[in-house]
Design goal:
alpha/beta, Rossmann fold, NAD(P)-bd_dom_sf, SDR_fam, SDR family oxidoreductase
Length: 234
């Protein structure tokens, strides 16, 4: 890369977020990581990057991450939005508080960091945002009701953002993982996958790295499934 580019990974202390940080570092990006556990700071140190311990539910923590990244590296080229797990229960038993938690975990985890970091991409006339969503976003599963509802909102948000900022060469896409090895293996789930296996965090990370690359420069507003063929709708 002619310019040393910088990738910010939110909720990058473990799982797919950590795998994305490692892959982007291997591809030559300088890395900044936010995680609530402290694992992100340790991983960032290992990768020669910047780590911040904080929550993606805190605008102050996200602003601190952006400010420290710009202070150290001078730019933000890629933003990867990962996240945790929200409430699960039969749909009529989910309380108002649990729905609000689900919104924070699955929708605001994208909206908050984008609101803080996208303006820097717009100013520099280039950037890529990749949101880790779910393969079932268009085929809701009652097992994960808050995920299904609010990640459908991420899809709508992504389309609006992509249309609005395409002229500024700022792209946004969603990666839709299926059953991935960061989850406990359940034989019945594995057997329902056409490829007959769980995917790996590294495979998801490779897709994220492609969407962050110049080779994906004409891709925006898309949902890219990484699910072994579980969902095959257009």
């Amino acid at each position: 890369m002619s310019v040393e580019k910088v990738a910010v990974v939110v909720a990058g202390g473990s799982g797919m977020g950590a795998a994305a940080a490692k892959r982007l570092a291997a591809d030559g990006f300088k890395i900044a990581i936010l995680s609530s556990s402290g694992k992100g700071e340790a991983l960032a140190k290992e990768l020669g990057g910047l780590g911040v311990t904080g929550s993606n539910q805190s605008n102050d923590d996200l602003q601190r991450l952006a400010d420290l990244t710009l202070e150290r590296f001078g730019r933000i080229d890629v933003l990867v939005n990962s996240g945790g797990h929200g409430p699960r229960a039969p749909i009529l038993e989910i309380t108002d508080e649990q729905w609000r938690t689900g919104m924070d975990v699955y929708l605001m985890n994208v909206i908050r960091p984008v609101r803080i970091m996208a303006p820097h991409m717009i100013k520099q006339k280039g950037g890529a945002i990749i949101n880790i969503s779910t393969a079932w976003v268009a085929e809701p599963n009652a097992m994960f009701p808050t995920s299904a509802v609010f990640r459908a909102g991420v899809t709508a948000y992504t389309k609006i953002f992509a249309n609005t900022y395409a002229p500024d060469n700022v792209r946004m896409n969603n990666v839709l993982p299926g059953w991935i090895d960061s989850l406990p293996t359940v034989e019945e789930r594995r057997d329902n996958v056409p490829m007959q296996r769980y995917g790996t965090s590294e495979e998801v990370a490779a897709t994220i790295a492609f969407l962050a690359s110049e080779g994906a420069g004409y891709i925006t507003g898309q949902n890219i499934r990484v699910d072994g063929g579980v969902i095959r709708a257009l």
